[in-house]
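re: the backbone from monday

yeah here it is again, tokenized this time
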């Protein structure tokens, strides 16, 4: 089955956006913890946006699975799973400091993972071939 290059491009864009928004999450956390408590609402909303983007990323990974030989499906499923956990840990932090304490390293790990996924999808040779239109 031929992979639509637009779906490959879409995956790369969404993967990059997720990494960027996780960095925004850390920035917002710094702001609402030390300066502007109201920004916690924005962090909460952004958490839901990230959840929806992770579903889109997984769907795009599935639709382009031939290009990545399923690798991106597995990585994207892991990102979705960790974002769901991250939302649970975030709300848990309202009453349980252990939960808030775990939320921070999971956020750092998610930033690393999502950045690696975005980078790997950008340098993937099969994806590049499809984008050039010769695949
Ligand atoms: C995928 C990324 C993330 C998601 C989906 C997410 C989601 C959430 C949610 C839903 C809350 C609860 C908000 C509320 O109680 O109204 C929260 C709280 C919080 N988040 Fe995140 N977050 C993410 C990343 C991060 C990162 C990277 C950091 C810091 C490095 C961070 C720091 C915090 C802190 C300090 C709280 C407050 C916990 C408390 O109530 O004591 N978050 N987060």
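seq for it, each position gets an aa:
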């Amino acid at each position: 089955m031929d992979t639509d290059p637009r779906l490959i491009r879409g995956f790369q864009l969404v993967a990059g956006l997720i990494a960027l928004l996780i960095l925004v999450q850390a920035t917002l956390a710094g702001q609402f913890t030390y300066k502007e408590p109201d920004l916690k609402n924005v962090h909460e909303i952004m958490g839901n946006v990230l959840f929806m983007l992770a579903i889109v990323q997984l769907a795009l990974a599935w639709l382009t699975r031939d290009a990545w030989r399923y690798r991106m499906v597995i990585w994207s499923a892991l990102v979705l799973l960790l974002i769901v956990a991250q939302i649970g840990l975030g709300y848990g932090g309202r009453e349980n400091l252990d939960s808030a304490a775990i939320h921070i390293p999971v956020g750092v790990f998610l930033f690393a993972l999502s950045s690696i996924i975005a980078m790997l999808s950008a340098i993937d040779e099969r994806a590049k071939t499809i984008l050039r239109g010769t695949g």
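Residues 2 and 135 are 8 Å apart (CA to CA). The chain has one domain: 5-132.
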